[in-house]
Amino acid sequence: MSRPLLGAVLSLGLLLAGCQRPAGGEAASTPAAAPTINNLDAAPAKTVTIPVQVVAATSRPLSVERSVSGTVTADRDSKVAARTGGVVQRLLVREGDTVTAGQLIVQLDDTDLRQSLESARLQAQSARINLQQGTRTTGQDVAQLRAAVQAAQASYDKASQTARSNRELLALGGISRADVTASEAQLSQAQADLVRAQNALRQNGQSGSGSAALLQNQLASAEVSVRQAEQNLSHAQIRAPFAGVVADLPVGVGEYLQAGGTAFRLVDPGSLKVEFGVSPADASALPAGTAVNLSYGAQKLTGRVGEGEQVAGSDRLVPIRVRLDGQPSLPVGGTVQVRYRLRLGGGLLVPTTAIQNDTGANTVYVLQDGVARRRPVTVVAESQGQAVVSGLTAGAQVISPVPPSLADGASVRAGQ
Hints:
Residues 78-267 form the Multidrug resistance protein MdtA-like barrel-sandwich hybrid domain. This is Efflux RND transporter periplasmic adaptor subunit. InterPro entries: MdtA-like_BSH, RND_pump_MFP, YknX-like_C. Mean pLDDT is 82; it is low at 1-34. The strands form 7 sheets. A 6-stranded antiparallel β-barrel has the order 4-13-16-15-14-17. Strands 3-18-22-21 form a 4-stranded antiparallel beta sheet, with no helix packed on it. Strands 5-12-10-7 form a 4-stranded antiparallel beta sheet, with no helix packed on it. The chain has 416 residues and is α+β, with helices and mostly antiparallel strands. The chain has helices at residues 3-19, 111-172, 177-234, 280-284; strands at residues 50-52, 54-56, 58-59, 62-74, 77-81, 86-91, 98-99, 104-108, 237-239, 244-248, 256-257, 262-267, 272-278, 291-296, 299-305, 318-324, 335-345, 348-351, 363-368, 371-376, 378-383, 386-390, 397-399, 412-414.
């Protein structure tokens, strides 16, 4: 048989073999592959044991460390004001210098003040001289008037005696009626002279007393002016009211300093404190005496919370003041970092990954006899992945993290 014919026979055989049906009259078919199930949230069959991790609920407090920024302040931080105006003549210190109480810091030009003092002293001296002269003149007048009263009294007594004697002689017939009339006229004149002398003495005493009082008031007023001028002169020397560090010198030599203007700022380094604000919840956990840590650059410090009203301000933060231990060298107004530890609550501590809130209430799963049991809990406090809860017993095996498919009553196995 030729080669072409042999090839055709083989091809036909293969074709017929491919068209043959299997026994039973049905065409053979390949079974379809089962669909892949990839729903991780589907509840497992009851016969499946889920591997879980457990954490023992331990009884201990939950603490957290806070860090806030604070500002350095001082109890005695004074802007010392000038009590009189003047041109700055000398500055005897520099910013940052330590000074003692009463030390001279700023000297104002006191030329005008010295002249005012000298003028006040001269006025006081003039008032003193006027008073002395007025007192001496009044004394001389009083002596003369008193002598005149005494002379008038003697004349009146003599005239009275003469008139009485003449009346007796007239009764005896020893003298005439004309003599009696003349003696009585002399008595009336002597009486008038006596009254006039007495009135002069009385009126002169009143006038002298009023004049002396006026001169005394003038002297007292002049002496007050002297003391005021002396005080103004002393104000030209602006001194430190207490020992401390000169934090600021806002004026320079030759500048005019108004009365009431700031001459320098003085800070007592021994009264430094740090102020910062915290929430009302944190403030209640920071009573007086609580120790805190602070840092200013590389400088590490310690301090304690001082007494305070713990009333929130307009920013809803409660101001806290910390007294620094020792006498650190810090600039007033500088910023420091404050670190403190708070005890948020006590109870059973569990990871926050163990707590679920699917039904509106907080729950955890506990491994009990190979089964997951859902337990309601109350969260007391939480921070940094840990929570303090109530509703469990100490040592309970809490499942954490919770597998997505876990349900109450599921069979579980604690693994690594």
